[in-house]
Backbone:
């Protein structure tokens, strides 16, 4: 079984049923057989967004991780150099910390599929282990 990395946009869409991308994200996830995973910088980004716009929803976000719906992959000291390097390579975009963490984890864990609404950036990022990411939905 493979892994699909989850970016901030789909997490926001899952939590907020009024989000225009809610149904597309739910439908996509319902067809997946792979496990879903993300990293803490993505969770922090989502939390920051939700707390400002939809108080009370951060608790729903955290429940996704308590129930193993989405696995949190660890980032360690060895990952920091690669994240910094990626942020320098894509400084013209600019690449944020959450995106750098996702690309780093994708490289480390040999993951090529991302659930993201950010096609503009993730269609440009080139991980070391693949020619491009497979983007969902």
Residues:
């Amino acid at each position: 079984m493979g892994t699909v990395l989850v970016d901030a946009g789909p997490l926001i869409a899952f939590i907020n049923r009024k989000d225009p991308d809610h149904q597309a994200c739910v439908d996509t996830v319902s067809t997946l057989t792979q496990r879903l995973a993300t990293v803490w910088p993505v969770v922090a980004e989502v939390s920051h967004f939700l707390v400002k716009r939809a108080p009370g929803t951060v608790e729903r976000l955290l429940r996704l991780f308590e129930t193993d719906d989405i696995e949190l992959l660890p980032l360690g000291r060895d990952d920091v150099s690669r994240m910094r390097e990626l942020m320098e390579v894509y400084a013209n975009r600019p690449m944020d910390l959450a995106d750098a963490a996702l690309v780093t984890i994708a490289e480390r864990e040999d993951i090529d599929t991302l659930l993201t609404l950010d096609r503009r950036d993730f269609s440009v990022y080139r991980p070391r282990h693949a020619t491009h990411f497979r983007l969902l939905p």
Notes: Residues 40-53 form the longest helix (14 residues). The helical segments are 8-15, 22-31, 40-53, 57-66, 77-89, 97-109, 119-122. The radius of gyration is 14 Å. The longest strand covers residues 3-6.
